[in-house]
Amino acid sequence: MRAVFATDLSDAIETALESRICLECLGRYGITEVHLLNVTSPNVTTGMPGSDVGRQTRRGLERQADLLREEGFDVETHVVRGTPHRRINGLAEQVGADLIIVGSRGKSPLRERFIGGTARDVARTAVRPLLVQRIVETEDEHEIANEHLFQRVLYATDFSENAERAFEQFRYLQEATQEATLLHVTPPERRSEPDVVEDAEARLAELADRLEGMGIETRTVVREGEAVEEILAAEAEFDPTSILMGSRGRSRIRRLLLGSTSEKVTARASCNVLLVPPRQFG
């Protein structure tokens, strides 16, 4: 399996690549080949006489590539110019990537996390599964929020086709996931409908049986309320290392928009987020 790993050559990304635990988790997910990509601004000139930008970029990229090679990954490096999210998604399609990885830096003292511009734009347009890896900034260093990327997964589902597609990720996660929480949030206006909660509980139980068969310890939770708030409340209660959910497109266009629930959860969650886009339409 292939991954496109976006790097801006910052200390934050270096911290992620230096984490043996993170890289082992990617290996258990099934990743064996990594395309390490740096996107430079179209305004940055690397070829002028006396310019050292190109050499510095290549040197930094090779240093990070060596960290991946030391953990047994096959690595190819890419330096391109352009708009980051377009180049990241373009390379992912070109090489047939199974996963895109981008870092998102949040400031730990703040109650509400935030997603960086590049990560947000990739999430809104990705046609491949996307791992938004949370990297926490402290005063003088960076830390990985959850090094065991997929050890505990919170799967949020509305039982839509795209949510079912996200659930298929457990085929790859089963070697890396020990515990899963399956969550459905019922809008308050539907709680009065006959059998709504019982139906949701039964559907979650069926999914739980499938995961238990994979050796993953599973719990099911049905909550009432606003989806984003309840997903974040479940994150606080169950302490997952990643949230898994689908990002629903709003039209059959090539560039798919991120659903508002997915976007808000990705922006505000403290842990990693694994987003699965809708199937591509021909």
Automatic annotation (TrEMBL):
This protein's superkingdom? Archaea
- InterPro entries on file: Rossmann-like_a/b/a_fold (IPR014729), Universal_stress_UspA (IPR006015), UspA (IPR006016)
Classification via CDD domains: USP-like
Q: What SUPFAM superfamilies does the record point to?
A: Adenine nucleotide alpha hydrolases-like
| UniProt domain UspA: residue ranges | 2-132, 150-277
Q: Say which family it is in.
A: Belongs to the universal stress protein A family.
- This chain's protein is named Universal stress protein
